[in-house]
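Example 3.2
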Amino acid sequence: MQSTLRKKLLDAFTEHEGEYLSGQYLADLIGCSRTAVWKHIEDLRHEGFELEAIRRKGYRIVKAPDLVTANEIRLGLKTSIIGQEIHYHETVDSTQKIAHRLGFENVPEGTVVVADEQVGGRGRMNRPWHSAKGTGVWMSIILRPSIPLPKAPQLTLLTAVAVVQAIGDCTELEPHIKWPNDILINGKKVTGILTELQAEADQIHSVIIGIGINVNQQKSDYPPELQSIATSLAIEKGEFVNRAELIQAVFTRLEKLYALYLEKGFLPIKLLWESYAISIGKKITARTLSGNLTGKALGITDDGVLMLEDDQGTIHQIYSADIEIG
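Structure, written as tokens:
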């Protein structure tokens, strides 16, 4: 009940951004007493929100803290599906594990698990993902698309486009995508995306999309072996980036692209993905489980499969591989 009232309170401040809202107005809106409103306001202050209270005018949020709790993310969030239910944890083993459990509990589509720190984060091929406290965005999103099982990998490419666009919205940086789901800035990795399925033989139950974004790490935060290949938005931009605002931007972009995908299919997403891809037209080496292939990256198929043309002119379709450019 308390979280529902808090959500209504933050939705009101979002809808009336910058305005003063009276205690009576808020009490009537969310269905509680003015004393209860005051207690919620005090709770927000304890969480780090800066609020003004002026007699006969009401309350106004001046500044939100750089946290990634449900309250910070909800303030200013204008999506209708993604992020409407948020499960925040200060420290977790993995947001993916929690999202998998919630997926089986039939939580609403668009439910998000977000953490300030992951101690067991992982990427593709079960590689560890460095997820330090207070520095990045570590989250998993639950979608329930009515699409054929073989098309599920397209959502990885869709998410990569959404994250690239969101980073551009918040930082004016120009990230690129390395197939299928790594996002690079100036050749260094800033984001990883991991998509996993809960499905039966012929039906998707849910798609769990894990997103890890390096936001405010400094170069010294990385071990020496990662400093040449990993970066953060703050390193590249030269200034601090608000994590909650970045999360909101990801939700907004993802929701719009997801709606477009469900209505129009993969083609519009494919065209966007290729416009951000760093490897198209370049020589690459694809390291697959069955061996290495070297050639020119031509693009992706309508199903999201990478096409590689070798020196003999044979076109290979790459379903899963590590890609090395050059």
